[in-house]
Structures are given as structure tokens and as C-alpha cells.
Amino acid sequence: MKFSIKRAALIKSLNKVSRVISSKTTIPILTGVKITADDEGLSLTGSNSEVSIETQIKSDDDNNELVIAEGGAVVLTAGFFINIVKKLPEEKMELSVASDLQTTITSGQSEFTINGLNASNYPHLPQIDTDDSIPFSGDIFKEIISQTVIAVSNQESRPILTGIHFKISDGKLLAVATDSHRLSQRTINFSGNNREYSFIIPGKNLSELSRMIEEHQDLEMRIAENQVLFIFGDTYFYSRLLEGNYPDTSRLIPEESSTQIQLEAPMMLASIERASLLSHESRNNVVKLTIDPSDGKIKITGDSPDVGTVEEELEPDSVTGEELEISFNPDYVKEALHSFGKTMIEISFSSALRPFTLKATEDGNSFIQLVTPVRTF
Questions:
Q1: What CATH superfamily is the domain 2-121?
Q2: Cα dist. 367→88, 174, 186, 357 in Å?
Q3: Domain 253-371 falls in which CATH fold?
Q4: Confidence (pTM)
Q5: For 81-100, how does the pLDDT look when each residue is reduced to its tens digit (9 = 90+)?
């Protein structure tokens, strides 16, 4: 194998695939990046056995300045190779692989020789045997991920809850995540595909995908039995699916409430952030919310026996229903509030010990956050 290329083009692609390459793996060859050259260009692959990323560098794109002199494939230790490429002196570089897999990298007066590995030993990418693709706006999909991934569980004792459950049917896509203490559910109208789907993607894999999708970039999704493939630009992102049945979360969302407040999300967020300065010093990490509809005010309280107390009154746009005193984990509520941005929201309560919901006042059912209160007595 032999080719020359503009260094910046190679670095850009190496940065993509290296996201999932780990120096600590039980499969030694996965510490490397697989490079394949053919008439169409270069293909770079990185994998950690759970997520695989493949990206293309096209020969017909003049910006790459890619010239393939000889096709072939090799696996190079990712850490060494990426650092070498980044530190080469000239804008262009050349890479050649000998029959014994000795790989020579030259740029200007600099020349490196490193040991390569046999690419035939690199695990094959998952086979997605379907042309049935689901198109998405990249911006919308990133938003769905950011709004739901906060409620994904990080406890491996219930693996199914470490993922986001996607359900597509009747012209709607529903994405939901819960760690049994809170829940986040986003629904969008969907006309991209008439088939019905139900699948669970690990939350950490979706977070990685979200960081890779560029602004205004469209993507398509293909589902296989235990794998999902996302295609965007010249990049292919493979993730395993979680096996099992996701719990029925629809019954967790209360249909009725006895107390409601409406206010700007940033106002509530700032107040809870101040209260949590002290609650974080307490072993319980609890903030208390007191609602009194008679005077149209709410009170947020945080305390730590070792440090002190903080108390703050807010005047929401609207307070209706019954008096209520409820305690909760401030970190859960902060993340929920942050996901709404600068929106006006409605928080609905049914009792001091029942989960409460946060919704945008406009089109509220399209995005729901639910938080379970903390029993303090």
C-alpha cells in the first residue's frame, strides 16, 4: 500500500475514528486504526467492539490531495500514528507499507518507520442487511439525544435502563429514558418511514454520536437485529442495540395534578443552583420547595447542618391549586430545567410523595421531564 495525502484531511478523519479506540482493550488489535486504500480513496476504521466508526476520504475530492499509488490495508497503533501525523513538518505526507507490514511515513525531511498489523485480523464491521433507512435532521436528532440522555441510568445492574428507548409508529417517534428516579420523554411527528420500530440504543453511544454530528447535517439510520447504523456525510457509525424489553413508562406519567406553577425555566434553574450550593454539603443533598397559591409565591430552601441554610422566594407567572411542600434531588431538577433552555414551563404536582412533571407551556406533551421526590420524614 502506498499513498500521499494532505495531512489536515487525514487528521480530520483520524480524529473521528479515534473517539472509540481505547489503549485498554482485551482485543489488542482494537488499539489500532485500520486503513484501507483502493481506487475510490481511503477508508479509516476504529472500534471498541461496542461502537465502530468508519469514515471515507475520497480520491475525487481535490481538497484531500489524495493520490493512491498502490492499494492495500494495514492496522497501525492509533496513539503512535495519530501523534506522528500531527507532528509532521510539511502539509503533505506519504505513507507506504512493505510486504512485512513495516510502515514508512515521510513528510519533508522527516521519516518514521513503525510496525503494522495484518488488517485481515481486524474484526469485520457489523452487517446491516437492509436498505430500509430512516432519515433524520441531524439538529433534531442531537436535540432528542441531549434532552433524553440525562435520564439514562449508569447502573449496570439494570442494563436495559442504560439506553434510550426509541419507538416509531403512527407517524410519531418517541424517545424515552429513565433511571427509575427520573424520566425524560421526547415525541416528534415523523413521516420518514411507515414501518414500526422499537429498539434501545446505549446512552453513552448516542452521546458520542451527538458530538460527531455537525450543524445542519442530515443523517440516516438503519436497523438490524442487534445493531444500528447511522450514516452522515462520509462517516458510518455502528452501535450495538440493547437486548430485552424496556419497561412501560407511559403509566409513570401522571395524568392529573393538584398544584401547578408556571415560570421561566432559567429563573427556577438559577434559584435551585444557589440552593444546591449548600445542599451539596449535606449527606442527603435535598432541596425543599414550598408552594402557597394564596400569595402566588414559591419558596426554595437548601440547608446543610455543617454550613448553614439558604432560602429564596420566587414569584412565578402563575400558581394554582393546593398548598404543597415537596423535597427533591436538586441535580435531577437542574438537568431537567437546563434541557428546556429559555422556555416558559409548567411544573405539575399531585402530592408530596408522587413524581412531578415539567413541560413547556407550548406544545407541552412533546417533551416531558419527570422527577421523583425525596421522602424526608
A1: DNA Polymerase III, subunit A, domain 2 (3.10.150.10)
A2: 49, 10, 4, 10
A3: Proliferating Cell Nuclear Antigen (3.70.10)
A4: 0.92
A5: 999 999 999 999 999 999 99
